[in-house]
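pinned: reference chain
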Amino acid sequence: MKAVICRSPGDLVVEDRTAPGSPPAGWALVAVSHVGICGTDYHIFEGKHPFLAYPRIMGHEVSGTVAATGEGVDLAVGEPVIINPYLSCGRCIACRHGKPNCCVSIEVLGVHRDGAMCEQILVPAQNLYPANGLSLANAAAVEFLAIGAHAVRRAKAETGARTLVIGAGPIGLGTAIFARIAGLDVSLLDMSAERLGFAAHELGFPVLDGSQATAIDLVRQATSGEGFDLVFDATGNTASVQSAFAHVAHGGTLVLVSVVKDDIVFSDPEFHKREMTLIGSRNALRADFDHVAASIRNGAVPLAKLVTHRTTLEGTPRDLARWAHEKSGLIKAVIEVGR
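pinned: its structure tokens
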């Protein structure tokens, strides 16, 4: 089968790989249809991912059709599916408590093990969700949107809560969309005038332009000095995460959607004075995938506007390398593997 291999940082090629064999019990073979390109994939290509062993087949935002099933799998051959790329152990404390998204020994397709920038992949059947009427192109977008949907669900905010999403990349935009679906009053903060223009003109969000004034001043002006009831940081930037504490109103909540490898330092007196709630949000659960799929089906997600770039498996080495540094106009890119 054809596969896109990142042999080392900056070295991306299409190679012939041995196709997966027959699926073992509890697993299924999936013919890959579409794969979204994530910020993680760009980081792997650029050598910025701290926990990756090369060579690696990337790709974890995936749709496809069931090509074969192992014993005990209740999926029909030919069934369109969405892949949940978070492979959990099923035994650890997180899994026992219904949180396989933060399994102690989690493996993510395309990161800890080979992913789906290829023609076929073996996946545990429990990680395959029926597309239920979604096109395979749209089904590939469910995973990245589920990250934001999970963060919003974790926040448990009241309808109408004044909400700030920091970061207008794909994850931040997904978070903002699902915060709006949840009935929250959402604004977006970013340093990129281009991304903010997209958020405002294409998606209809109020925006705060961090290139024009300091974030703290913008937040004060937008909230009459009170701060936001709910703040999501989706930047992956240490300085942004640390400054986000100051944007939260007394009694409010900060949700860390993105992850940084540095320590986060904040003022404990300020934290306690505000009786702030701090929430970490990691990956997503089946309920989030289902919520996203339903929201796409009912037209609540402007997916046609979010998917801005497309390529093929053969074109991925050229295009992914270019998009890693040519960001203008890029929101979400998708690889069309099999149509």
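why pinned: The mean pLDDT is 96. The chain has two domains: 2-140+302-336, 148-280.
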